[in-house]
Amino acid sequence: GPTLCLILGDQLNPLHSWFARPDPQRVHVLLELRQETDYVVHHAQKVIAIFAAMRDFARQLKAAGHRVRHVAIDDASNRQSLTANLDALISHYGASAVEWQQPDEWRLDAQLNDWAARQPIACQAVDSEHFYTARGEAAELFADRKQWLLEHFYRTLRRRHGVLLDADGQPEGGQWNFDADNRKSWPGNPPEPADRRPRHDHSALWRQIEAAGIVTLGQPQAADFRWPLNRAEALQQLDDFIEQALPHFGDYQDALSSKSWRLFHSLLSFALNVKMLNPQEVVQRVEQAWREGRAPLAATEGFIRQILGWREYVRGVYWARMPGYTESNALGHQRPLPHWFWNGDTGMACLAAAIRASLQQAYAHHIQRLMVIGNFALLAGLDPQPLHRWYLGIYIDAFEWVEAPNTLGMSQFADGGQLATKPYVSSAAYLDRMGDHCKGCRYDKKPKTGERACPFNALYWDFFERQAERLRGNHRLAMVYKNLDKMTPEARAALSEQAAATLARIETL
Ligand code: FAD
């Protein structure tokens, strides 16, 4: 019988060697599954985008002459579990073998391996042909180092792949890292790039998703949908980014603004994570733009570091630490998430904007995820597990291998500091320096105490006070503790009181 070739919803790469030429002995299987829509509550746009892209992928494979079996969410034959469907399809086709591309999530990897161990026919996982690095590579590179420094990993990969190197193999511009140049707030100029992403009408698909009873969060915006459906659209988006936004990406990489939800970010994470785009081609095109004088070096390096560095690195952390990583809670935080995480209804202007953007677009940029929402969550001591599920559900690009290390490691310090050398937290002063939200906010950025004091202020000091035993020894926090030590006992008590009062009314902040 034929070989069944399973394509997961985040494996929509038409350049994979599986598709080099049609082979009647190979049936490509795409499955829309309740198992996948239900392991966490996802944003409506995420479910739509993935199903729509899977359907488009199936159509294109068929048009290219491949055998395809696409099982829709409401297909009568759909058993809604990955392995139950495989069992049914094996007997239906009389298949003699099953292949799949290595999943990126531990959950699916374990499910497929357990299932395969019980099969009488040949089962085999092949490379997904997407990443620069193998799953276990970061773990090898860092061996038993306590801290995994991104910079070390990133430079190794720059050298290995000859990215942004001069003729002598040295980093272009004489330095590996231009972070110090990439920290401007955005004054409203240059104007934000035009959103040229295509619109698709997914209302029929959305009705199917609703009829199936799938629970989602956020706005489906079925008639005004801007996520790419396929590789051609993703490539167009990459070109638009390089032309319009890359030149300013570096300058405003860390900025926050009430006037622009995307600033100069690429919005490419969905296309990358479902593998419509390959990270190598993205990096090469961006480097090429710099070589042709179309972007400054600091912006180019800053962008490439996100993809060649961070993206590969967090994946390495994930595979080194799973299973168990998603349960980490090194700081012992237990507070439930306030209800306004699901409607953006808070008077803190920066948080309201970040959460509303997330609900409306299934997207928030990195600084909103890290320095607004994540910052508040860490300072307030929110339970990292429901927070992890919130992040895993809400973002269009959220898949556990990349979401969990970012949320639990980088943002919440829940892994005890493997990823981050210190907690990413700030008081209102930083938020005010990087953005314009404080001006229109119900709270006052300056005072630490009092009715109108910005909650970030007292929570910031109280966090370090609470965590002193664990964090005081960290030399990157020496200044914080020096400042705390300079305060009078009365001032410190007032801060703790303010923090306690703030947390007591967290639902109405
Ligand atoms: P840009 O700013 O244009 O960056 C370009 C690309 O670099 C991104 O598309 C992405 O592929 C990559 N990248 C940038 N930062 C990171 C990072 N820290 N880790 C991995 N890749 C990175 N990214 C996800 O793809 N999925 C997630 O579920 C996710 N969850 C996050 C949760 C938290 C708490 C934080 C702080 C960050 C998270 N990130 C996640 C990383 C980052 O915020 C997003 O990749 C980025 O905002 C996507 O938007 P963009 O494509 O416009 O990115």
Describe the overall structure.
This protein is mostly helical and 509 residues long. It folds into 3 domains: 3-126, Rossmann fold (3-Layer(aba) Sandwich), CATH 3.40.50.620; 137-321, Serine Threonine Protein Phosphatase 5, Tetratricopeptide repeat (Alpha Horseshoe); 339-508, Orthogonal Bundle (DNA Cyclobutane Dipyrimidine Photolyase, subunit A, domain 3), CATH 1.10.579. The protein contains 20 helices and 7 strands. The chain has helices at residues 34-38, 44-63, 82-93, 106-117, 137-142, 150-161, 203-211, 231-249, 269-273, 279-291, 297-321, 349-361, 366-380, 384-394, 400-411, 428-434, 455-466, 468-471, 478-486, 489-504; strands at 3-7, 26-31, 42-43, 67-71, 97-101, 122-126, 216-217. Strands 4-2-1-5-6 form a 5-stranded parallel β-sheet, with helices on both faces. Helix 6 crosses helix 11, helix 8 packs across helix 11 and helix 17 packs across helix 20. The mean pLDDT is 96. Bound molecules: flavin-adenine dinucleotide. Residues 265-269, 272-273, 306-307, 310-311, 314, 365-366, 369-370, 374, 391, 395, 397-398, 402-403, 406-407, 410-411 line the site of flavin-adenine dinucleotide.
